[in-house]
Amino acid sequence: MCGGCVETEYPSRGNTCLENGSFLLNYVGCVESVRFPHPQVVESEVSLQGGDPCESLVFVPDVCKNCHHMIARHEYTFSVVDDYQEYTMLCLLCGRAEDSISILPDDPRQAAPLF
């Protein structure tokens, strides 16, 4: 992975977890080919952690279209924990983020207090 191709390494993205794509506002250009081609996403690698089909880890490398220099490796995880879907993203280019969404119709964390 290359820190010279990005403006900020691992920027905080709050709860915006993207399975794939590129955060082009953070992309400076390829330092190897000295150009500004958009990163190209090559085939992703999906693996299960612990054999549980509800947990997955996806690696999506972003490479330069011209010289195939690896700009970043996008890591995205998804799992179901209790009654919540848990998402995480870690990428030099796209940043880092975490999110948790209830699988119930009404999220108990969002319930208004009665008193």
UniProtKB/TrEMBL annotation:
Pfam families: Churchill
Keywords: Activator, Developmental protein, Metal-binding, Transcription, Transcription regulation, Zinc
InterPro entries (alphabetical): Churchill_sf (IPR038543), Transcrpt_activator_Churchill (IPR009508)
One of the GO BP terms on file: fibroblast growth factor receptor signaling pathway
Cited PANTHER family: PROTEIN CHURCHILL
Family: Belongs to the Churchill family.
Name this polypeptide is given: Protein Churchill
Organism in which the protein naturally occurs: Chrysemys picta bellii
Organism lineage: Eukaryota, Metazoa, Chordata, Craniata, Vertebrata
